[in-house]
Design a protein that fits this description.
The complex is a heterodimer of chains A (111) and B (333). With 111 residues, chain A is mainly alpha-helical. Chain A has helices at residues 2-19, 30-77, 86-107. Chain A is rod-shaped. Chain B has 333 residues and is of the alpha+beta class. Chain B has six helices and ten strands. Chain B has helices at residues 23-49, 55-70, 92-97, 106-114, 117-165, 214-220; strands at residues 3-4, 12-13, 170-173, 188-191, 203-206, 230-234, 249-253, 268-275, 282-287, 310-315. In chain B, strand 8 (268-275) and strand 9 (282-287) form a beta hairpin. Chain B is rod-shaped, with a radius of gyration of 52 Å. Classes of the chains: A mainly alpha (111), B alpha+beta (333). The interface between A and B is large, with 73 and 90 residues.
Chain lengths: 111, 333
Amino acid sequence: MNSAFQALENEVYTTDQVLGDAADSATPSLAYNLTQASTNASTALTNSQTAVSVANKSLNTTLTTLTSRVSTLETTVGAVGTSGSLADDARNAKTDAAAAKTAAESALGVP
Amino acid sequence: MPQSSLYYTDLQLPTLNGDGTSYGTVLNTYIQGLETKLKNLSDRVNAAGVGSSSTLAQIDRDLAQVTVNTSGILPDPYSGNYSTVSTWPAYNTELTALGISPPETASEIETFFSSGDFTTFVNYLNGKLDALDIIVTQAESDLSSALEDTCATKTILDARTAAQSSGAKSTRLVDGGSIGNSPLITKFTKVPTSIGGNIDESEHKPASVNDYPVLQYWIDNGVLTTSFQSFYGIRTPSDITSGVSLGNYVSKFGGSFSGENRASGRAVQVKYTGASTVDSTTRIVLRMPQLLNRENANNKVVDDIDILNWEKHQVIYPYPTLNCSNPSPPYFS
């Protein structure tokens, strides 16, 4: 019986040693690993919450900025007949260049 | 008769006041069984949580890696200074009508992507971009045409300059471009007001629009530029000096003239004045030396000019070969 209890005690002791000290980073012990895991999990949770917040804001600002940029581009490109727009400037450039060519041809004496 | 243990039911404990001489054997068997289970438990805990290769250690490393991975977004680039918005800064009316608003929370973002809102949003912007693409494509085409015409203009002007440098000569043209003297005879009526008070000059204009000389036709066709060289003169021009633009003398002559109103050594200048607000058309102004025309007692020009034999002179330069399919601007910088 004593031998059996000793063996049992030994196993309980072994299990106790397995749990170990929370400061034992050399082994590292189960208690140490659990503590580190808890700390890292807490940090990861905080960071992930921040990441989600950043992602929310990022997507929100990306989508809204995108619409603004498209709107600005639409204004810049404009349309023929809208003074100052790219399309109108291009059309005017075409018309002016054609007129300049005609004038140059006239300078050659082409009636 | 042994009984099942409370927690490990596969283990048996001896029954008090029972089992007789087998009591100790049963108890020993129980303890050894419990010992085995403890050993197994110890082994499993070891594998799960002890040492750098344990499952828990791996979890710990994974969690640490999560921190490393998320550290790139820290600190928060918005630093709390940015607030999400719930309305679109542009196209809000249209997008709202489509049932789309800017997502602000993780839940809304999830819904935005899972409900089809994102596809609707993309389709809307694609429509905008498609419309812009058409406009930009047309603008590119317009600019391409402009560049080609600008290249052509540069080529033409260069050719003209080169021709001028090589001493290109004028030819005489009548209306329609044929070379020769114009048969047009135009009556110019004197305008009472003299030009600038110069007694040597007076202003005359044709009696009617139909009497306008060939020059009128040409100018009305918009070919008059500062570098345009088409000249009209009385009789044979011998002193064509410059190009024509509004207000310039179209032609200037010297030398001798024959006929009734002749004046050796006197110049006759024809000035183009452009559109007149009086008769709503262009007209030719003649500046006549006093001796060439009849005078009154004060040496003022008084009479009409009856006969003017106009001829049109024009310098024609060779039309250059245009190589402008691939323009390389700038051309006039």
